Amino acid sequence: MKMNPARLIAPVMLLAAACPLLAAQLGDPAAPLEIAEWIKGEPVDLAAAKGKKIVVVEFWATWCGPCRTSIPHLTEMQKKFANRGVVFVGVSDETSAKVKPFVDQMGEKMDYTVAIDRDNKTSEGYMKAFGVNGIPHAFIVDKEGRVAWQGHPMAGLDKALDRMAANTFDLGVEKKRDGAQRKLQEYFELASNEGEDEQLDKLAVQIAALDKELGGINPGEPLDLAGLRRSARFQSVMRDYQRALASGRGEAELTKLEQKATPFAPPGFKFSEFKGQFQLQRLFQDYYRALTRPGNETKAAELAKQLEGIESSNAEVQNEIAWTILTDERIKNRNLPLAMKFARAAVAASDGKDANILDTYARALFDTGKVSEAIEQQKRAVELCDDKEKQAEFKQTLQRYQAGAKSGSGGRG
User: How far apart are CA 9 and CA 26, in angstroms?
Assistant: First the structure.
Protein backbone atom coordinates (compact mmCIF):
# COMPACT_ATOMS: atom_id res chain seq x y z
CA MET A 1 0.00 0.00 0.00
CA LYS A 2 1.36 3.36 -1.04
CA MET A 3 1.41 6.48 1.04
CA ASN A 4 -1.37 8.89 0.17
CA PRO A 5 -0.36 10.99 -2.88
CA ALA A 6 -2.69 13.76 -1.74
CA ARG A 7 -0.08 14.68 0.89
CA LEU A 8 1.92 16.22 -1.95
CA ILE A 9 -0.93 18.41 -3.11
CA ALA A 10 -1.34 20.40 0.09
CA PRO A 11 1.18 23.12 0.95
CA VAL A 12 4.12 21.73 2.85
CA MET A 13 3.88 22.12 6.61
CA LEU A 14 6.54 19.83 8.01
CA LEU A 15 6.49 21.38 11.46
CA ALA A 16 3.35 21.13 13.54
CA ALA A 17 2.03 24.14 15.38
CA ALA A 18 1.48 23.86 19.09
CA CYS A 19 -1.89 22.44 20.13
CA PRO A 20 -4.42 24.54 22.02
CA LEU A 21 -4.67 23.98 25.74
CA LEU A 22 -6.91 21.10 26.75
CA ALA A 23 -10.50 22.01 27.65
CA ALA A 24 -11.94 18.70 28.90
CA GLN A 25 -10.37 16.67 31.70
CA LEU A 26 -9.94 13.02 32.52
CA GLY A 27 -12.81 11.80 34.64
CA ASP A 28 -15.37 13.77 32.62
CA PRO A 29 -18.34 11.79 31.23
CA ALA A 30 -17.55 10.42 27.78
CA ALA A 31 -19.37 11.97 24.83
CA PRO A 32 -21.70 9.62 22.91
CA LEU A 33 -20.50 8.00 19.70
CA GLU A 34 -22.40 9.72 16.90
CA ILE A 35 -21.81 7.45 13.93
CA ALA A 36 -22.93 7.81 10.31
CA GLU A 37 -22.04 4.23 9.37
CA TRP A 38 -20.54 1.17 11.02
CA ILE A 39 -18.02 -0.20 8.53
CA LYS A 40 -16.82 -3.25 10.47
CA GLY A 41 -17.97 -4.96 13.64
CA GLU A 42 -21.09 -4.46 15.75
CA PRO A 43 -22.38 -0.97 16.67
CA VAL A 44 -21.18 0.27 20.06
CA ASP A 45 -23.46 2.22 22.40
CA LEU A 46 -21.58 3.77 25.31
CA ALA A 47 -24.74 4.04 27.40
CA ALA A 48 -25.39 0.32 26.97
CA ALA A 49 -21.71 -0.48 27.63
CA LYS A 50 -21.70 1.38 30.96
CA GLY A 51 -21.04 -1.01 33.82
CA LYS A 52 -20.14 -3.81 31.42
CA LYS A 53 -17.46 -2.79 28.93
CA ILE A 54 -14.36 -0.65 28.58
CA VAL A 55 -14.38 1.11 25.22
CA VAL A 56 -11.30 2.45 23.42
CA VAL A 57 -12.26 5.20 20.96
CA GLU A 58 -9.45 5.81 18.47
CA PHE A 59 -9.39 8.51 15.78
CA TRP A 60 -7.58 7.74 12.51
CA ALA A 61 -7.66 8.22 8.72
CA THR A 62 -6.69 6.17 5.67
CA TRP A 63 -4.18 8.82 4.53
CA CYS A 64 -2.36 8.92 7.89
CA GLY A 65 0.93 6.99 7.88
CA PRO A 66 1.26 6.76 11.69
CA CYS A 67 -2.36 5.55 11.82
CA ARG A 68 -1.54 2.68 9.45
CA THR A 69 1.45 1.81 11.62
CA SER A 70 -0.71 1.63 14.74
CA ILE A 71 -3.52 -0.47 13.19
CA PRO A 72 -1.86 -3.89 13.69
CA HIS A 73 -0.99 -2.88 17.26
CA LEU A 74 -4.64 -2.00 17.94
CA THR A 75 -5.68 -5.37 16.49
CA GLU A 76 -3.27 -7.18 18.81
CA MET A 77 -4.64 -5.27 21.80
CA GLN A 78 -8.24 -6.02 20.81
CA LYS A 79 -7.40 -9.73 20.77
CA LYS A 80 -5.48 -9.49 24.02
CA PHE A 81 -8.20 -7.64 25.94
CA ALA A 82 -11.34 -9.02 24.29
CA ASN A 83 -11.93 -11.51 27.13
CA ARG A 84 -11.51 -8.68 29.64
CA GLY A 85 -14.45 -6.72 28.31
CA VAL A 86 -12.55 -4.21 26.16
CA VAL A 87 -13.94 -3.05 22.81
CA PHE A 88 -11.92 -1.01 20.30
CA VAL A 89 -13.64 1.44 17.93
CA GLY A 90 -11.68 3.19 15.17
CA VAL A 91 -13.44 6.39 14.04
CA SER A 92 -12.65 8.18 10.78
CA ASP A 93 -14.13 11.40 9.40
CA GLU A 94 -13.68 10.23 5.80
CA THR A 95 -16.34 8.87 3.46
CA SER A 96 -17.45 5.26 3.38
CA ALA A 97 -16.14 5.07 -0.19
CA LYS A 98 -12.62 5.72 1.13
CA VAL A 99 -12.75 3.77 4.38
CA LYS A 100 -14.51 0.56 3.36
CA PRO A 101 -12.03 -0.50 0.61
CA PHE A 102 -9.16 0.30 2.97
CA VAL A 103 -10.64 -1.81 5.76
CA ASP A 104 -11.42 -4.65 3.33
CA GLN A 105 -7.84 -4.59 2.08
CA MET A 106 -6.44 -4.62 5.60
CA GLY A 107 -8.50 -7.72 6.42
CA GLU A 108 -7.49 -9.44 9.65
CA LYS A 109 -4.79 -6.85 10.18
CA MET A 110 -7.53 -4.40 11.13
CA ASP A 111 -9.69 -6.67 13.23
CA TYR A 112 -11.77 -4.37 15.42
CA THR A 113 -14.82 -2.16 15.06
CA VAL A 114 -14.51 0.64 12.50
CA ALA A 115 -16.95 3.52 12.04
CA ILE A 116 -17.55 6.76 10.13
CA ASP A 117 -18.09 9.90 12.20
CA ARG A 118 -21.36 11.78 11.71
CA ASP A 119 -20.60 15.39 10.79
CA ASN A 120 -17.53 15.34 13.08
CA LYS A 121 -19.79 15.13 16.14
CA THR A 122 -17.78 12.32 17.75
CA SER A 123 -14.51 14.09 17.01
CA GLU A 124 -15.85 17.26 18.62
CA GLY A 125 -16.79 15.34 21.76
CA TYR A 126 -13.29 13.91 22.14
CA MET A 127 -10.56 15.43 19.96
CA LYS A 128 -11.80 19.03 20.06
CA ALA A 129 -12.89 18.80 23.70
CA PHE A 130 -9.40 17.68 24.76
CA GLY A 131 -7.62 20.10 22.43
CA VAL A 132 -6.05 17.33 20.32
CA ASN A 133 -5.11 18.10 16.71
CA GLY A 134 -3.06 15.08 15.63
CA ILE A 135 -4.01 11.50 14.77
CA PRO A 136 -3.85 8.69 15.65
CA HIS A 137 -5.19 9.44 19.09
CA ALA A 138 -7.07 7.19 21.50
CA PHE A 139 -9.38 7.64 24.48
CA ILE A 140 -10.30 5.01 27.07
CA VAL A 141 -13.89 5.13 28.30
CA ASP A 142 -14.03 3.14 31.54
CA LYS A 143 -16.94 1.07 32.84
CA GLU A 144 -18.22 4.13 34.68
CA GLY A 145 -18.61 5.91 31.34
CA ARG A 146 -15.77 8.35 32.06
CA VAL A 147 -12.81 9.30 29.85
CA ALA A 148 -10.07 7.70 31.94
CA TRP A 149 -7.03 7.99 29.63
CA GLN A 150 -6.06 9.70 26.40
CA GLY A 151 -2.96 9.64 24.22
CA HIS A 152 -1.20 8.07 21.25
CA PRO A 153 -2.37 4.45 20.85
CA MET A 154 1.23 3.19 20.83
CA ALA A 155 2.35 5.22 23.85
CA GLY A 156 0.91 3.74 27.02
CA LEU A 157 -2.54 2.57 25.94
CA ASP A 158 -1.73 -1.11 26.51
CA LYS A 159 -0.24 -0.37 29.95
CA ALA A 160 -3.32 1.61 30.96
CA LEU A 161 -5.58 -1.27 29.90
CA ASP A 162 -3.37 -3.72 31.80
CA ARG A 163 -3.79 -1.64 34.94
CA MET A 164 -7.54 -1.52 34.43
CA ALA A 165 -7.69 -5.28 33.96
CA ALA A 166 -5.66 -5.78 37.16
CA ASN A 167 -7.78 -3.21 39.06
CA THR A 168 -4.66 -1.13 39.74
CA PHE A 169 -5.65 1.81 37.54
CA ASP A 170 -5.76 5.01 39.57
CA LEU A 171 -7.81 7.72 37.87
CA GLY A 172 -6.52 10.30 40.36
CA VAL A 173 -2.93 9.60 39.31
CA GLU A 174 -3.89 9.69 35.64
CA LYS A 175 -5.63 13.03 36.11
CA LYS A 176 -2.50 14.40 37.77
CA ARG A 177 -0.36 13.05 34.93
CA ASP A 178 -2.75 14.55 32.39
CA GLY A 179 -2.48 17.90 34.16
CA ALA A 180 1.30 17.64 34.10
CA GLN A 181 1.21 16.94 30.36
CA ARG A 182 -0.95 20.02 29.99
CA LYS A 183 1.75 22.03 31.75
CA LEU A 184 4.31 20.57 29.36
CA GLN A 185 2.15 21.75 26.50
CA GLU A 186 1.92 25.21 28.07
CA TYR A 187 5.71 25.18 28.49
CA PHE A 188 6.16 24.35 24.80
CA GLU A 189 3.85 27.17 23.72
CA LEU A 190 5.63 29.68 25.95
CA ALA A 191 9.02 28.49 24.71
CA SER A 192 7.93 29.27 21.15
CA ASN A 193 7.99 32.96 22.04
CA GLU A 194 11.03 35.03 22.83
CA GLY A 195 11.27 36.93 26.08
CA GLU A 196 9.40 34.42 28.24
CA ASP A 197 12.42 33.05 30.12
CA GLU A 198 11.34 34.07 33.62
CA GLN A 199 7.91 32.49 33.26
CA LEU A 200 9.44 29.41 31.65
CA ASP A 201 11.83 28.95 34.56
CA LYS A 202 8.97 29.10 37.08
CA LEU A 203 6.94 26.60 35.06
CA ALA A 204 9.97 24.33 34.73
CA VAL A 205 10.21 24.05 38.54
CA GLN A 206 6.56 22.96 38.74
CA ILE A 207 6.96 20.45 35.92
CA ALA A 208 10.13 18.93 37.41
CA ALA A 209 8.34 18.46 40.75
CA LEU A 210 5.41 16.73 39.05
CA ASP A 211 7.75 14.52 37.06
CA LYS A 212 9.43 13.38 40.29
CA GLU A 213 6.11 12.83 42.08
CA LEU A 214 4.64 10.78 39.22
CA GLY A 215 7.76 8.78 38.49
CA GLY A 216 7.74 10.28 35.02
CA ILE A 217 5.14 12.50 33.36
CA ASN A 218 5.55 10.29 30.30
CA PRO A 219 6.52 6.92 31.80
CA GLY A 220 9.76 5.58 30.38
CA GLU A 221 10.74 8.95 28.90
CA PRO A 222 13.24 11.17 30.75
CA LEU A 223 12.16 14.77 31.20
CA ASP A 224 14.19 17.09 28.96
CA LEU A 225 12.88 20.62 29.33
CA ALA A 226 15.98 22.16 27.76
CA GLY A 227 15.47 20.00 24.68
CA LEU A 228 11.77 20.84 24.58
CA ARG A 229 12.61 24.55 24.74
CA ARG A 230 15.07 24.22 21.84
CA SER A 231 12.52 22.26 19.81
CA ALA A 232 9.82 24.89 20.42
CA ARG A 233 12.10 27.74 19.38
CA PHE A 234 13.26 25.84 16.30
CA GLN A 235 9.71 25.11 15.15
CA SER A 236 8.67 28.70 15.73
CA VAL A 237 11.50 30.09 13.59
CA MET A 238 11.03 27.41 10.94
CA ARG A 239 7.37 28.33 10.53
CA ASP A 240 8.58 31.84 9.62
CA TYR A 241 11.15 30.23 7.34
CA GLN A 242 8.47 28.25 5.50
CA ARG A 243 6.35 31.35 5.06
CA ALA A 244 9.36 33.21 3.68
CA LEU A 245 10.00 30.39 1.20
CA ALA A 246 6.35 30.25 0.18
CA SER A 247 6.19 34.00 -0.47
CA GLY A 248 9.47 34.04 -2.43
CA ARG A 249 11.44 36.21 -0.04
CA GLY A 250 15.05 37.00 -0.93
CA GLU A 251 18.14 35.08 0.13
CA ALA A 252 19.12 37.77 2.62
CA GLU A 253 15.97 37.25 4.68
CA LEU A 254 16.24 33.46 4.39
CA THR A 255 19.85 33.58 5.57
CA LYS A 256 18.83 35.73 8.53
CA LEU A 257 16.17 33.18 9.54
CA GLU A 258 18.61 30.30 9.08
CA GLN A 259 21.06 32.00 11.42
CA LYS A 260 18.25 32.52 13.94
CA ALA A 261 17.18 28.84 13.77
CA THR A 262 20.65 27.25 13.73
CA PRO A 263 21.29 27.29 17.52
CA PHE A 264 18.08 25.31 18.04
CA ALA A 265 18.32 22.93 15.05
CA PRO A 266 18.49 19.16 15.67
CA PRO A 267 21.76 17.39 14.83
CA GLY A 268 22.24 16.80 11.13
CA PHE A 269 19.57 19.24 10.01
CA LYS A 270 20.45 20.88 6.69
CA PHE A 271 18.63 23.98 5.51
CA SER A 272 19.58 23.29 1.89
CA GLU A 273 17.81 19.91 2.00
CA PHE A 274 14.78 21.37 3.74
CA LYS A 275 14.59 24.19 1.22
CA GLY A 276 14.96 21.79 -1.71
CA GLN A 277 12.22 19.50 -0.41
CA PHE A 278 9.90 22.43 0.28
CA GLN A 279 10.41 23.92 -3.17
CA LEU A 280 9.99 20.52 -4.85
CA GLN A 281 6.69 19.87 -3.12
CA ARG A 282 5.41 23.37 -3.83
CA LEU A 283 6.34 23.06 -7.49
CA PHE A 284 4.71 19.65 -7.79
CA GLN A 285 1.60 21.06 -6.12
CA ASP A 286 1.36 23.68 -8.90
CA TYR A 287 2.08 21.03 -11.55
CA TYR A 288 -0.64 18.71 -10.23
CA ARG A 289 -3.19 21.50 -10.24
CA ALA A 290 -2.30 22.45 -13.80
CA LEU A 291 -2.57 18.81 -14.91
CA THR A 292 -5.96 18.24 -13.34
CA ARG A 293 -7.67 21.46 -14.43
CA PRO A 294 -8.78 21.91 -18.05
CA GLY A 295 -7.05 24.52 -20.16
CA ASN A 296 -3.72 24.50 -18.31
CA GLU A 297 -1.72 22.30 -20.70
CA THR A 298 0.86 24.99 -21.50
CA LYS A 299 1.41 25.82 -17.85
CA ALA A 300 1.72 22.12 -17.00
CA ALA A 301 4.39 21.70 -19.69
CA GLU A 302 6.37 24.66 -18.33
CA LEU A 303 6.19 23.32 -14.78
CA ALA A 304 7.23 19.86 -15.96
CA LYS A 305 10.42 21.36 -17.38
CA GLN A 306 11.14 23.00 -14.05
CA LEU A 307 10.57 19.70 -12.26
CA GLU A 308 12.97 17.95 -14.62
CA GLY A 309 15.75 20.26 -13.46
CA ILE A 310 15.21 19.76 -9.72
CA GLU A 311 17.45 17.40 -7.77
CA SER A 312 16.49 16.01 -4.38
CA SER A 313 17.85 13.47 -1.92
CA ASN A 314 14.47 12.75 -0.31
CA ALA A 315 13.50 9.26 -1.48
CA GLU A 316 10.01 9.32 0.02
CA VAL A 317 8.96 12.58 -1.62
CA GLN A 318 10.34 11.55 -5.00
CA ASN A 319 8.63 8.18 -4.77
CA GLU A 320 5.28 9.77 -4.00
CA ILE A 321 5.64 12.18 -6.92
CA ALA A 322 6.42 9.31 -9.30
CA TRP A 323 3.53 7.20 -7.98
CA THR A 324 1.09 10.11 -8.27
CA ILE A 325 2.03 10.76 -11.89
CA LEU A 326 1.73 7.05 -12.71
CA THR A 327 -1.53 6.24 -10.94
CA ASP A 328 -3.60 9.25 -9.88
CA GLU A 329 -7.00 8.94 -11.54
CA ARG A 330 -7.36 12.70 -12.00
CA ILE A 331 -4.28 12.84 -14.21
CA LYS A 332 -5.30 12.07 -17.78
CA ASN A 333 -2.06 12.94 -19.61
CA ARG A 334 0.77 11.22 -17.75
CA ASN A 335 4.31 12.48 -18.22
CA LEU A 336 6.03 9.09 -18.08
CA PRO A 337 9.59 10.40 -18.55
CA LEU A 338 9.07 12.71 -15.58
CA ALA A 339 7.68 9.86 -13.49
CA MET A 340 10.69 7.75 -14.48
CA LYS A 341 13.10 10.52 -13.45
CA PHE A 342 11.67 10.67 -9.94
CA ALA A 343 11.28 6.90 -9.63
CA ARG A 344 14.94 6.35 -10.53
CA ALA A 345 16.07 9.13 -8.20
CA ALA A 346 14.06 7.58 -5.35
CA VAL A 347 15.73 4.21 -5.95
CA ALA A 348 19.15 5.85 -5.89
CA ALA A 349 18.37 7.85 -2.73
CA SER A 350 17.20 4.67 -0.96
CA ASP A 351 20.13 2.56 -2.22
CA GLY A 352 17.64 0.25 -3.93
CA LYS A 353 16.62 -1.25 -0.58
CA ASP A 354 13.03 0.00 -0.24
CA ALA A 355 10.37 -2.41 -1.52
CA ASN A 356 7.75 0.33 -1.95
CA ILE A 357 10.10 2.43 -4.04
CA LEU A 358 11.14 -0.53 -6.20
CA ASP A 359 7.46 -1.29 -6.80
CA THR A 360 6.99 2.27 -8.09
CA TYR A 361 10.10 2.02 -10.26
CA ALA A 362 8.84 -1.27 -11.72
CA ARG A 363 5.53 0.39 -12.56
CA ALA A 364 7.35 3.24 -14.34
CA LEU A 365 9.38 0.69 -16.34
CA PHE A 366 6.30 -1.32 -17.28
CA ASP A 367 4.31 1.75 -18.32
CA THR A 368 7.17 2.82 -20.60
CA GLY A 369 7.29 -0.59 -22.27
CA LYS A 370 10.39 -1.93 -20.49
CA VAL A 371 8.63 -5.09 -19.38
CA SER A 372 11.63 -7.33 -18.69
CA GLU A 373 13.26 -4.65 -16.53
CA ALA A 374 9.93 -4.10 -14.75
CA ILE A 375 9.75 -7.81 -13.92
CA GLU A 376 13.28 -7.77 -12.54
CA GLN A 377 12.59 -4.78 -10.28
CA GLN A 378 9.23 -6.16 -9.15
CA LYS A 379 10.93 -9.43 -8.13
CA ARG A 380 13.31 -7.38 -6.00
CA ALA A 381 10.37 -5.57 -4.42
CA VAL A 382 8.75 -8.91 -3.53
CA GLU A 383 12.01 -10.23 -2.03
CA LEU A 384 12.58 -7.12 0.08
CA CYS A 385 9.01 -6.78 1.33
CA ASP A 386 8.51 -8.06 4.90
CA ASP A 387 4.76 -7.30 5.03
CA LYS A 388 2.83 -10.42 4.00
CA GLU A 389 -0.24 -8.59 2.70
CA LYS A 390 1.80 -6.05 0.78
CA GLN A 391 4.03 -8.82 -0.54
CA ALA A 392 0.95 -10.62 -1.86
CA GLU A 393 -0.08 -7.39 -3.60
CA PHE A 394 3.41 -7.08 -5.13
CA LYS A 395 3.25 -10.69 -6.33
CA GLN A 396 -0.04 -10.02 -8.12
CA THR A 397 1.57 -7.05 -9.83
CA LEU A 398 4.54 -9.24 -10.81
CA GLN A 399 2.17 -11.79 -12.35
CA ARG A 400 0.54 -9.02 -14.39
CA TYR A 401 3.94 -7.91 -15.68
CA GLN A 402 4.86 -11.49 -16.53
CA ALA A 403 1.58 -11.92 -18.38
CA GLY A 404 2.37 -8.73 -20.28
CA ALA A 405 5.76 -10.16 -21.26
CA LYS A 406 4.15 -13.34 -22.64
CA SER A 407 1.57 -11.42 -24.63
CA GLY A 408 4.18 -8.95 -25.84
CA SER A 409 2.27 -6.02 -24.39
CA GLY A 410 3.65 -3.41 -22.03
CA GLY A 411 2.36 -0.10 -20.89
CA ARG A 412 -0.31 1.05 -18.51
CA GLY A 413 -2.81 -1.45 -17.24
Answer: 37
| Residue 326 to residue 349: CA distance in whole angstroms | 19
* Distance from C-alpha of 77 to C-alpha of 407, rounded to nearest angstrom: 47
Residue spans of the chain under pLDDT 50: 1-22, 413
Q: Across 129-168, where does the E strand assignment appear? A: 137-141, 147-151
pLDDT at site 5? 39
- Distance CA(146)–CA(176), nearest Å, equals 16
Quick check: helix, strand or coil at residue 141?
strand
The model's pLDDT over 240-286, given as tens digits with 9 standing for 90+, comes to 999 999 888 889 999 999 999 999 999 999 998 898 888 898 899 99
Q: What pLDDT score was predicted for residue 30? A: 96
Q: How far is CA 46 from the centre of its chain?
A: 28
Where does CATH 3.40.30.10 sit in the chain?
Answer: 5-169
Task: Give the strands of the sheet with 137-141, arranged side by side.
Answer: 35-40, 113-117, 86-92, 54-59, 137-141, 147-151
| Assigned CATH topology for domain 5-169 | Glutaredoxin (3.40.30)
Q: Where in the chain is the domain with CATH 1.25.40.10?
A: 310-407
- CATH 1.10.3720.10 assigned to 310-407: no
pTM, two decimals, is 0.66
Dihedral over Cα of 207, 210, 216, 218: its sign:
negative
CA angle 58, 61, 64 (to 5 degrees): 110
Whose CA is closest to 265, among 311, 319, 227? 227
